[in-house]
Amino acid sequence: MGSGEQRLGRVDNSIYRETGTMLPNIPAKSYVGVARTGTAIITNEGHCAGKSDDSADASTNDGKNTQCDKAKCPVCVPYGFTKDNSSLEGLAQFHDARLLLFPVYSLLGTIWVTSPWVLRDFVADQKTPSSPKMLHCQVPGALREKLASAFDDTPPMLNFGWLSLPLDDDNFDIKKCNIKGWGNLPESLRDELAERCVLVGDEVFSRIVNANLEVRTSVSIDPFTGAAAHGALYTYEAVPRGAVYGFSISYKNPLLFKIGGNKIDLTLEEVKHSVHEGLAMLNILGVGAMKTRGFGRFEVFC
Fold first, then answer.
1. Distance (Å, rounded) from C-alpha 108 to C-alpha 206?
2. Is the CB of residue 172 less than 8 Å from the CB of residue 199?
3. N or C: which end of the chain has fewer CB within 10 A?
4. 3 state SS for 179-230
């Protein structure tokens, strides 16, 4: 998910980050439009996928470029619409997707890293695990045993790319954090993440993430010569495969709204179902830039 900014330095095209934390972020506006298109494809309401074209002649194109204002539309009701003098704010309100677990390569293979401050946004009871000691980390019991056997008599440490941190006295079990939506993940995936999820302090989490982002290089091809164009080399950042984001959706009760004086003819569960169908298409349609080059695919569990 690019920021749209270019700067001189290590990377030409940087990814989008939260200003206060410098952590990768996916703005809601970047995936809602794709989800709407996914819902329109599944429900065969393609004319409701995009913005209404006020200049279109509905009598000649069968309204293909015009959003409908039907009280039972599975696209316009959840996501909203604007048509002539009629409009409706979508009954589904989407929030930014924030980073929850970040994959890092270590001497024990891939691990997923998080911190107490990050978990605070996702736990249901607002109770987060105690932070490790300064410049320490907490690991699951299984990882502690592997590290202890590898280091023999020396204090065990775990590396996060270039950074190595000693183990804290306490173990970490993400299953005890009561994360909202955790139960939506397949059981095998939950177990794998829990066995390899490591807790670090808030003071180093952002640095670990930014130090382990992918930096790729591309070059534009001259269509006449078929070779690399002169001066067209550029670099860009990417979040590595396997990163776990979390986001929430708030729903309004359809019984409290009308379209053109008519009650909305969808239940709250039907609105949720339409949105979930659209989110399932993100794995196919993709989000962000360079979708034709392997980026932007992610699976939503809701």
1. 21
2. yes
3. C
4. ECCHHHCCHHHHHHHHHCEEEECHHHHHHHHHHCCEEEEEEEECCCCCCEEE
Q: Which residues contact 6 (CB under 8 A, 6 or more apart)?
A: 12, 13
Given the structure tokens 């173990």, which residue do they identify? Answer: 171
Residues shown for the chain: 302
Q: Please check whether residue 45 is in contact with residue 70, taking contact to mean a CB–CB distance below 8 angstroms.
A: no
Q: Which run of H or of E encompasses 148?
A: helix 141-151
Which residue, 151, 158, 250, is CA-closest to 197? 158
DSSP type of residue 254:
G
Give residue for tokens 């911190």. Answer: 115
Say if CB 166 and CB 155 are below 8 A apart: yes
Tens-digit pLDDT profile for residues 10-54:
666 778 888 888 899 999 988 999 999 999 999 888 788 876 655
Q: What one-character DSSP code corresponds to residue 55?
A: T
Give me the residue spans of the domains in the chain.
Answer: 1-96+231-302, 102-212
CA 52 to chain centre: 28
d(CA 106, CA 174): 19
pTM of the model: 0.84
pLDDT band with cut points at 50, 70 and 90 for residue 3: low
Question: How far apart are the C-alpha atoms of 196 and 111, rounded to whole Å?
Answer: 5
Can you say whether the dihedral through the CA atoms of 159, 165, 169, 171 is positive or negative?
negative
Q: Kind of pairing, strands 197-200 and 80-83?
A: unpaired
For 238-286, what is each residue's pLDDT tens digit?
A: 899 999 999 999 999 999 988 878 888 889 999 999 999 999 999 999 8
Cα–Cα separations (whole angstroms), residue 215 to 30, 62, 113, 233 = 22, 47, 19, 13
Note the pLDDT of residue 12.
Answer: 63
Identify the three-state secondary structure at position 299.
coil
**CA atoms of 256 and 241, how far apart (whole Å):** 42
